[in-house]
Amino acid sequence: MKRIFNKIFSFLLVFVVAFGLPVAASQSSAASTAVKVTVEILQNSVSTKVNSATYYVTAYSDSACTKVVTTKSVTLNNASSGTVTFDNLSAGTTSTTYYFAESNSSGTLKTDTSTLTISYPYGNIAYVTANDSTTKELKIQNNYSSDPNTASARTADENQPLLFGGIAVLCVLVGGAVILMRRKHV
């Protein structure tokens, strides 16, 4: 009997030295959770498919949606909705509140325009509490007043490169005209 006890003790000693003592997770350790955000496309409150479009969703740490935690994209190809998952959102030691909103690719909050209304029917807040490992679900609805597949329905954020390109071309044309007029008068 003493021999068996010595063998078991020796095995446990080698195990502890090799791998360390097993430690149970404390109740105050921070949990992490996931938040699934679905972007849904509507036209006049009716679900509609978009041919090809990318939408951005950002997790913020403040209610004003200015402190970016992370930004993810949702690409829709002939679909009316898509989902992105934010994994491993930490609660800290007590609880943390995350705010989710549609944004541009750099995390700047996207606001409603004359052709688009953005709404959060489930709310845009996810609370992550200590020892909570559940997955939260939120929804963002883009309700277009005209067909979202046309250029006229795009928001100011999506048309910004086109706008600045047009302004640059206009400046070159006006500058060229001014130079030509000065040469004629000289």
Summarize the structure.
With 186 residues, the chain is α+β, with helices and mostly antiparallel strands. It has helices at residues 2-19, 156-185, and strands at residues 32-43, 46-47, 50-60, 68-79, 81-90, 95-103, 116-119, 125-129, 135-144.
Task: Write structural notes for this entry.
The protein has helices spanning 2-19, 156-185, and strands at 32-43, 46-47, 50-60, 68-79, 81-90, 95-103, 116-119, 125-129, 135-144. The chain is of the alpha+beta class and 186 residues long. It has one domain (32-171): Collagen-binding surface protein Cna, B-type domain (Immunoglobulin-like, Sandwich). The strands form 2 sheets. Strands 1, 2, 5, 7 and 9 form a 5-stranded mixed sheet that branches. A 4-stranded antiparallel sheet has the order 4-3-6-8, with no helix packed on it. It is globular. The termini are far apart. Residues 11-30 and 159-171 have low confidence and may be disordered.
Topology:
Blueprint: H1 2-19, E1 32-43, E2 46-47, E3 50-60, E4 68-79, E5 81-90, E6 95-103, E7 116-119, E8 125-129, E9 135-144, H2 156-185
Parallel strand pairs: 1-9
Antiparallel strand pairs: 1-2, 1-5, 3-4, 3-6, 6-8, 7-9
Kindly, what is the distance between the CA atoms of the first and last residues, rounded to a whole number of angstroms? 115 Å
How many β-strands, per DSSP? 9
Q: CATH H-level name... which superfamily? A: Collagen-binding surface protein Cna, B-type domain
Task: Quote the CATH topology.
Answer: Immunoglobulin-like
Strand content: 35-45%
Q: Cα-atom Rg, whole angstroms?
A: 28 Å
User: Could you describe the largest sheet, including whether it forms a barrel?
Assistant: 5 strands, mixed
User: Which architecture would the CATH scheme give at its second level?
Assistant: Sandwich
Quickly give the structural class: alpha+beta
Order of helices and strands: HEEEEEEEEEH
Residue windows where pLDDT falls under 50 for at least 5 positions: 11-30, 159-171
Question: How helical, in percent, are the residues?
Answer: 25-40%
Mean pLDDT value: 73
Count of discrete alpha- or pi-helical segments spanning 4 or more residues: 2
Tally of discrete structural domains: 1
Question: What characteristic shape results from the CA principal axes?
Answer: globular
Classified by CATH, the class is Mainly Beta
